[in-house]
Design brief:
Largest sheet of chain A: 3 strands, antiparallel
Radius of gyration of chain A: 15 Å
Number of strands of chain A: 3
Order of helices and strands of chain A: HHEHHEEH
Largest interface: A-B, 29 and 29 residues
Protein name (chains A, B): Transcriptional regulator
Distance between the termini of chain A: 11 Å
Pfam families (chains A, B): HTH_34
Oligomer: homodimer
CATH topology of chain A: Arc Repressor Mutant, subunit A
Strand content of chain A: 15-25%
CATH superfamily of chain A: Winged helix-like DNA-binding domain superfamily/Winged helix DNA-binding domain
CATH class of chain A: Mainly Alpha
Shape of chain A: elongated
Chain lengths: ~100, ~100
Amino acid sequence: MIAPPMLDPVIHAAGRLQICALLASVDEAEFAVLRDGVGVSDSVMSKHLKQLEDAGYVKVRKATTMGRQRTWLSITPAGRKAFDAHVKELTRLANLTL
Amino acid sequence: MIAPPMLDPVIHAAGRLQICALLASVDEAEFAVLRDGVGVSDSVMSKHLKQLEDAGYVKVRKATTMGRQRTWLSITPAGRKAFDAHVKELTRLANLTL
DNA sequence: CCATCACTTTCCATAATGGAAACTTACCAT
DNA sequence: ATGGTAAGTTTCCATTATGGAAAGTGATGG
């Protein structure tokens, strides 16, 4: 192999890549905002978030404000690091010279 | 959805993304070079190339030079366009602001 | 105590990958 | 012509990934 692919499979999948990209740009985002932002069903979003959480890339904060229970997601330092590295690797690939 | 994902599934898959990246940087590449560059088996490389060819992104040229038969791959104009668009979209996602 | 909201999990059906092994072609040697 | 080998191709089979619908959970309002 020319260069061992540093593409993180947890981040590379289209849906999760979008989630990470969205979370990387804000402090926190509501579950529903992410779900609609990515355009998937509740179940799918929940599953993607679980994978990201298991990887330590996303932090989940359940808040009960004004009687309303909402889930807020944020990217962790590890998540940001992994995302940045992933983007960097994509950039490297895109500008690759054989 | 905030922005409809313009990620081309044919190009996004890690293996094919690497193939496209490699082909985007050269005029032509030999099958074996690509296979080793990406680090997959003959069968997998063959199947990825078939998908890229079916999509019109890669051109296959079978050449018999000096008694040796080799397959040369090159990216087509459509392939380059799709790859560039894909990279552009990845860049957009990476710099996304919610 | 029951209904509802906001996710979570389970269930199920596809689609995507991957490698090994079998198969095909072309070309060289005999 | 016939056999052998190189270079891919296809087939076979096993995993894994996705996705949505539907059922399940826990907290909250009435």
